[in-house]
Amino acid sequence: MFKYFHFTILIILVFYISILLFMFFFQRTFMYHPKVKTLDSPPIKFKYKEVYIPSEKNIKLKSWFSFSPLNKKTILFFHGNAGDLNARIYKLNKFSNLDVNFLIISWRGFSGNNGKPTEKGLYQDAKKAVEWLQNKGIIKKDIILYGESLGTGIAVELASKDNFSGVILESPYTSMVDMGKRFYPFVPVSLLQRDRYNSLKKIKKINSPVLVLHGKADTLVPYYMGKKIYDNANEPKYSYFPTFDNHMMAYDQDMVNALKSFLDHGAKQ
């Protein structure tokens, strides 16, 4: 009987280790979802040019650039971990009400781009997007970094090392390790996680104005994470925490008003 008990424990242990190995080697397939298709995208209501921004050798980032010399500020938009540029049309349509230019980039491995997404790689993509704007004559003090979900970690990384007009964080997480622990409590995430995006550790290094947007009904990235990011951010900081918004926040008039107020009064002029 004792012998069978040991054998059972051994089988369970081998099975558990096999799961850990699988999750370690394939963890990025759980984190990044570039193949998610956008259904029924709304019609585009903004003028833009499709551009390809060089990032690394053989990697060019499909991007949309909307520019008017009448607009003083430019939003650099970092999208989340799923889908392509079309999935953000409903948000970009609202930017025309904000009197801003914008550049939205798609990450390596997304929207038909070469490469595979990694934390280090996405940081590189974002830096090259800033450089591309600078080459267009748009200086950092006129750039507002806008991170959506996964993209908040990239926005925080860049803003922790340089000053921008402002930083907008929509549905931010504290770190990907914290997110991993939430979804896989049986896994030693702290040991296995490769791409960590530790925004909570970096948020205090940001000296640019910050706006945190987070729905209190978020079922993917819990609201307490966004609140923690906000609480640890330096002044000046602003928040918009609607009660009933889920992870994909409603881009209604209240949201537009929150963005416009930050652009007019919060971001550095």
Description:
- The structure is a single chain.
- It is globular and about 80 Å long.
- Strand 7, helix 9 and strand 8 form a beta-alpha-beta unit.
- The protein has a single domain, classed as Rossmann fold, CATH 3.40.50.
- The protein is α/β, with parallel strands linked by helices.
- The longest helix has 24 residues.
- The model has no long low-confidence stretch (mean pLDDT about 95).
- An 8-stranded mixed beta sheet has the order 1-2-4-3-5-6-7-8, sandwiched between helices.
- Helix 4 packs across helix 5.
**CATH level 1 name:** Alpha Beta
The parts where pLDDT drops under 50 for at least 5 residues are: none
Taking strands numbered 1, 2, ... along the chain, how are they ordered across the largest sheet? 1-2-4-3-5-6-7-8
Named CATH topology: Rossmann fold
Keywords:
globular, 269 residues, Rossmann fold, 8 strands, alpha/beta, 8-stranded mixed beta sheet
Quick recap:
By secondary structure, the protein is an alpha/beta fold.
